[in-house]
Amino acid sequence: MKCSLKAPAKINLSLDVLAKREDGFHEVEMIMTEVDLADRIDLTIRNDQQIVIQTLAGYIPADSRNLAYQAARLIKDRFRIAAGVTIYIQKNIPVAAGLAGGSSDAAAVLRGLNQMWDLGLSKAQLAALGSEIGSDVAFCVYGGTAKATGRGEKIERLPAPPPCWVVLAKPPIGVSTGEVYGRVQMSSNAAAPKSETIKQAILAGDYNQICHHLHNDLEPVTMSLHHEVLQIKERMLESGADASLMSGSGPTVFGLIRNEGQVHRVYNALRGFCDQVYAVRTIS
Predict the structure, then answer these.
(1) What is this structure's pTM?
(2) What amino acid positions are annotated as catalytic residues?
(3) Nearest alpha carbon to residue 127 among 140, 118, 112, 115
(4) Which pLDDT score, from 0 to 100, does residue 25 have?
């Protein structure tokens, strides 16, 4: 038995860091939406009990460090499944980029094995399982657009934002999510998280207000550590993006563009600056 699934990337339209939690995580409030850059996950049931990761991308782990492996192990152990699974990952989303590529892969594995092993789990149940693996997995189980709170595992579904182009640019650097969160300043955020403003703009279908209120508390921290992130954002805006923001803890920066004629101009301006540049669209 085989199954193929898409595992889309996400971008943060907002990210408010509200407080440090007792469990070591941070209390956050985020608005996230999927874009049509996606990994492909192929699942094949095995007669033995093995979980096998296959990929041509040599830079991602093919063992228990991989979130897709962890998702298969979790659902297999939790429901005492005797069969095994081969997970083939066609990697299209940049890794360690702030785009939730690994989390989306894990969510796809949860959805696929739920179907193939006929477990009958709801999305809420799958999201609860996913939150045991990583903070973004619950959102990726639901997909679409949502407000995420807690450490990211509490999901409120939202309608899609007005359709637009998204140019993504990832510089050739690595970012430590733990270091970025460890340096973030939270003093002024808890009183008035800005994610609610983005939520209301989405509900109103107001593209200009979304652009005006993009916000990420982690952006200045990552920019202070990696000046390339600021340079990419400046170049996006100078070349015609309507708005620009770093996604997650970075280092990927995205630009929102309504006018299709501007897309190639922004894309080409970034192609001369870094290798990993993508022109995609929001998912409606």
Answers:
(1) 0.95
(2) 10, 136
(3) 140
(4) 83
